[in-house]
Amino acid sequence: MKNKYILWILIAVIIAGIGYWYWYENVRIIKISRGTPRGTVTEMKYIIMKHFGLDKKHGLDIDFPVFDPGELERRFFSGETGGLGGMSPLVASKANLEDKKVRILSAELQMNYYIAVRNDSNIRTLEDLKGKRVGVLPKATAAYSSLALILLHVGINPDTDLSLTFGPIPEMVKLVREGRADAAMVSYPTAASLFASGEFRFVADLEKIWEESHNTSHPFVVMVAFEDWLRVKENRRTVKRFVEASNETAQLIKDTPELLTDESIPGIKEFLEKNGLNSEETKKLLRENAPEFIYSEWGEKEVEAVGVLLSHAKEESLLPADAPDDIIIGPSEL
């Protein structure tokens, strides 16, 4: 009889152990923090993810502190974030030359910049920009590198064909408004208010230009992590869950773009007010255009798009020739 009790105890312990293992591997909620770029479509996506509990559906409880893009990048490389980050694939590749072993885990955002002019401008095409004064973000930014890469592929050298002036987007827009510049880089979602006002129009949708010449998207922002962080099994599990939650949220937005302007979602109402996106025409443009910029899949097509971008950046000397391109973690490796 005593042996029977011992046997039952052993069975109970084994069952409890299996149950704990299953809970730990599949059910346990993992808490993480992921910095978010301020005033972007990505910020809107994460507001919607939290509102609908899609992070917890995939076993995560994610905090999304908001920072300016440059500060986000600094925090990642300094180790302050302690996990996942977001940046241009060009920055990620170049970092490896400085022995910062960054790995690309998924594509998050396509090139969401336009070149805008005043509505009464006689500039109609990119060719018309030659010799004109164009306000752009500083050369040190990933946005400028992507802009230069796209322009070079349509036969415009920004250094020699354009008269460039550098600064933050609001300052560049002000120069165009006052007639002290002919055109400026602008980005969604805040570009929606400029175009809705009737004061500005765009002469170049940079993502569409890239797609037409390369038959693939332009991954402007990718999710990244350091290689040593990824060696931890739980961190790999976290990445897989995050990618699933992010892609499901992106698809929800694509299927229901009204969510981007649904003021019953507390974070969305605050975002629209803070970024001056309150007019009905602005909201209409947001619904029509912003969903296109977010990736809802991480598959072979997206992996290839990152590779194409890195390859062309090397051809145009926007990346050193020895910058690695074998830094992409495909979906089957997560």
Automatic annotation (TrEMBL):
Q: What UniProt keywords are attached to this protein's entry?
A: Membrane, Signal, Transmembrane, Transmembrane helix
Record-annotated membrane-spanning stretches? 6-24
Organism superkingdom = Bacteria
- Which Gene Ontology terms of cellular component type are present? periplasmic space
Q: According to its UniProt record, where is this protein located?
A: Periplasm
State a single Pfam family of this protein.
Phosphonate-bd
Family designation: Belongs to the bacterial solute-binding protein SsuA/TauA family.
Protein name as annotated: SsuA/THI5-like domain-containing protein
Tell me what organism the protein belongs to.
Candidatus Niyogibacteria bacterium RIFCSPLOWO2_01_FULL_45_48
